[in-house]
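Hey, I was hoping to borrow your eyes for a little while. For a while now I've been wondering how a particular protein folds. The fold is given in discrete form, as structure tokens running alongside the sequence. Could you read through the record and tell me how the tokens relate to the sequence? Take your time with it, there's no hurry, and the full record follows here:
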Amino acid sequence: MARRIAVVGSINMDLVTQAPRFPQPGETLLGEGFVTVPGGKGANQAVAAARLGAEVALVGALGSDAFGELLRAGLLREGVNLDHVRRLDEVASGTASITVAGGDNQIIVVPAANARVTPAHVESARQVLARADAVLVQMEIPLEAVEATLRLGRSLGVPVILNPAPARPLPAGWLEQARYVTPNQHELATLLGADPAEDFRALMRRAPVPVVLTRGHEGAWYREQGEPAHQPAFEVQAVDSTGAGDTFNAALGVFLHEGLPVAVRKACAAAALAVTRLGAQQGMPRTHELDAFLAG
């Protein structure tokens, strides 16, 4: 049977401009390319989970604008249930304006409709969360909606995976509601109010909740009890790391029923496949591709 995944999170249209360099204040500069790309951590994780064979429902918000129509259509094509994605007339859809130059980028995110996701909105999706095998939530929506998701998932007995990005300090009482948190080292230090230079294994031991820590080309570390365990990364030729973290989180949720070590291994493999292709959602692998990769 397909796993049932509920995602509570953001939906954005990424507006990506390529330029020879970043313009100075007040300067007009000719760009080298422009593309619109569906994004937002909630939408990305929903698409990644759907491609891995899960039955996915997304809880979020869109504006009633052209970007909202495009984003909605794309998610429906991927098979994501949008019954709890609200269409708001008074605000625009979320956007991320990204300028890429010299291998670096500058980003301005306008949450817009994403900022209107409320605890009441989450509560209205109670039945969706109740029947889920896992719930994924990130921090590109208001923190009160994140807390509502954590507490509702705990009360329903459904494992909630908190991807704490963008990182902000959270009360320990909130973190304890999650089944797992999935930060990188900087995000974990921010969550705990600690020094990012502190050894990451020590940070994992101090966390009030089991941690699955992503380490980029080193793979991932995970801990439920005792000492952290290591899952090495899969060696691939990286092309674009955009969306790799979202792919990792989605795969972790989809395969969590197989046990944490197996889920982390498959999540690392899915993320490795994602970085071999351009784009966030475009590069996310499907089930047969992941199976073939692991078999090989």
